Amino acid sequence: MRGxxxxxxxxxxxxxxxxxxxxxxxxxPSLRASGTTIPGTNCPxxxxxxxxxxxxxxxxxxxxxxxxxxxxxASTTSLHPDYGPSGDPAAPYGxxxxxxxxxxxxxxxxxxxxxxxxxxxxxxxxxxxIEGGSDRHALMVDPRRSATSSACTLFxxxxxxxxxxxxSTAGSGAEWNLRSNALRPAGWTSADAAGLPILPGxxxxxxxxxGAMDHAIRFTAQCTDQxxxxxxxxxxxxSDPSCPPMGARFRLSASFTLPASECSRFCQTVLTTMKTYxxxxxxxxxxxxxxxxxxxxxxxxxxxxxxxxxxxxxxxxDESCLMVTVNSGLALQPGSAAYNQxxxxxx
Length: 347
Fold this sequence. Notes:
Elements: H1 65-71, E1 80-82, E2 98-99, E3 110-111, E4 138-142, E5 153-158, E6 169-170, E7 172-177, H2 205-210, E8 217-221, E9 249-252, H3 265-276, E10 279-284, E11 289-291, H4 300-304, E12 314-317, H5 337-342
């Protein structure tokens, strides 16, 4: 759920032209192959050296970890998968997403937070799946190069309302080159309160079914501070330093286990991901709710087994040493000389 935003002057609800920012070498598309591919496409979910795709097993704990955990009621709360069967097979819980079909017309969208939104146009159509509930996210991956976008472009909008007469609206919107490590401008929101992409942080059925999910997972907290940490770009919280900032990253204890009788292969894959890549705080919402794709193939047991993970088994990590430049999601990789020099050892 979106938190409070800065009040914008009247007239900013109109579309504004966004001046492109010059890209540094760290922002340019990476030449490395990605470890995570968007299912059904040849598009990476950002380069392999992106912070979303970087293991955090060797990072030290954040000095504020205990304070943040207390603010999120970690001692009395278990994790909650915010996706799965709803009782209506046609409308499962979760955030839907779409691979843009060939020849989909692009349309302009009018934004409430236009000054922080990508102007567009967007491949939004009557067939684009839109999340139910109040957030109404629309996530669209265009794998083909076209006159309006580069190949492997991710478009995301929040509070999306499609109108076939060309008067579609949304609260905010963003565009990402999935082959690039470039971040949003500092202080800009996205379709998420943290100014981060949504799709690369979702628990995806195809990835879990493969036995490997090689990226961090998006999650929410009720109380967030009025600040953000790299790679987040925006805050939507309150002035309370006891609450975690947007972008805070949490890692499941390596010693935590669930027996196979209580945690299937699907469940074990998610546990491994939480231990290796962790969770990234990306929005305001219920404490320790983590998000996944809306998919009819999820079963009740695959989802419910994940409700046995106590939040008290997590620790906030300090990933600041991974940062190469503040405006890029490029991260130092474990085992590299730069990582060994900058990142304190936990052993």
